[in-house]
Write a structure and sequence with these properties.
about 240 residues; alpha/beta; six-stranded mixed sheet; about 35% helix; about 10% strand; globular; binds iron/sulfur cluster
């Protein structure tokens, strides 16, 4: 496992923004009904070493699936400093057992430094600012030298995700965003996990179907919206990395 995304920083210059946007706009409709493995294969073929994955470590489905297509792909994990121990354990298990290069990316400030600069428990007072510093900015830094990145985003996870294309243009980041699992249902995920014996964060079975920082994630009740435990009691529904 890499402490920093070394591979990402060794990459050469890529295509222009106009070229990347055109690629995304053509590929999105063309790959809408493609299998997840084929979408990953297209991304590897199109972007080569200027492509990476990201993972929240709720499960290892995308990392497992992508590693079957092309071993050795970089998997960026945003180590906010606020994760559950089970999430860190899942990250370490993925790094130890799958043929992927897990790259843990840390924010500019440690939790202690952030507390000193902004006051303690910023997540409770201004979660948007906390996420901007501990998730959004580190991800943008990690993606500096890639043209495309893949996430495990699924349309059925949230109302904000129902129109997510399998390949789309992320204008804010100037990158092609690839979502090979966009059309997957919960049942599809469960079937893949069972068929391939994929690593799953133990918190999922403990009532946490969607897992973020421990400070901003609570257990959900049976039948409750799977993402109801994220920033519960606030109007916040996304950390900003999928904006
Ligand atoms: S999820 Fe909570 S603790 Fe984690 S970065 Fe966002 S606001 Fe901060």
């Amino acid at each position: 496992m890499s402490a920093v995304p070394v591979q990402l920083h060794r990459r050469s210059a890529g295509r222009s923004l106009d070229e990347l946007r055109e690629i995304a706009e053509i590929a999105g409709p063309e790959l809408e009904l493609a299998a997840a493995e084929d979408i990953v294969g297209w991304a590897v073929e199109t972007f080569g070493t200027r492509f990476c994955l990201t993972a929240s470590m709720t499960d290892a489905v995308l990392a497992h699936l992508a590693s079957r297509v092309t071993p050795g792909l970089p998997v960026v994990f945003l180590d906010t400093g606020y994760h559950f121990p089970e999430t860190i354990g899942t990250r370490d298990a993925v790094a130890a057992t799958l043929p992927v290069d897990v790259c843990s990316v840390a924010p500019a400030l440690t939790v202690a430094e952030q507390d000193a600069a902004y006051g303690s428990d910023l997540y409770a007072r201004d979660p948007d600012l906390c996420c901007a510093m501990r998730k959004v900015a580190p991800l943008e830094q990690a993606l500096t030298h890639v043209d495309a990145w893949a996430t495990g985003l699924r349309r059925e996870e949230a109302r904000t995700r129902v129109i997510a294309p399998v390949v789309g243009w992320d204008a804010a980041k100037g990158k092609v965003r690839v979502s090979p699992l966009a059309r997957w249902t919960r049942a599809d995920v469960d079937a893949y996990v069972a068929e391939h014996d994929v690593l799953v964060n133990p918190l999922v079975a403990d009532g946490y179907p969607s897992i973020g920082c421990r400070t901003c994630t609570r257990r959900v009740s049976p039948g409750e919206d799977p993402r109801a435990g994220r920033w519960a009691g606030t109007s916040k529904t996304e950390c900003g990395i999928h904006a």
